[in-house]
Design a protein that fits this description.
Strand content: under 5%
Radius of gyration: 17 Å
Order of helices and strands: HHHHHHHH
CATH superfamily: Oxo-4-hydroxy-4-carboxy-5-ureidoimidazoline decarboxylase
Largest sheet: none
Number of domains: 1
Shape: globular
CATH class: Mainly Alpha
Number of helices: 8
Length: 207
Amino acid sequence: MTRGPTLPAHRLPHLPGRRAISALPEQTRTPPSPKVLEGFNTASADDACHLLLGCLRSLRWARRLADHRPYPDLDSLLAASDEATYDLTPEDLAEALAGEALPTLPDGMYPVAHTALSAAHAAYEARFGHVFVICRGGVTPEEALDHILGGIRSRLTNDPEEERVVAAEELRRLARERLADTLGGAGNRMTGHDGATPGKTRRTPPP
């Protein structure tokens, strides 16, 4: 199996190993309005952490980003997010993975697709002891099933340390995507969230 490039060794000193799949290009996002970013920059530490924990369930990551405010623009915040994610310890990554929900399929998928996905998830969790995470940035709804199943099948061949590195990279990309979605959306979300929060999504597929 062809493997992608390794993550920078100096950024993940506790997580040796190699990537199993190449990263998809980061999606282009609409930048947040100045008022939204200002609201994040001036919010209380608790409110900022609450918002950040909706993007990645790591207290160390959330507190670090909250403590380094203000950010002049979204790119600066995303760069800080990357840096903080690279510095997470294995324990921090375990905490973040424990807060993740299973990737879900778009509405309208046939029941057999959900059955296949549930079986693949079960095999993955049995091998690695944590939920499978993958960033779907740029993947169309029609491609979602193949993208998720292909990722699981590819990564099941990893040893645990290799897979920890891949999962860490997927968490980094998920955090970036969620931050861009949250701060790039209409209005300031500092007082709460609409929709599901990572770690709270139901794992049971629709009938």
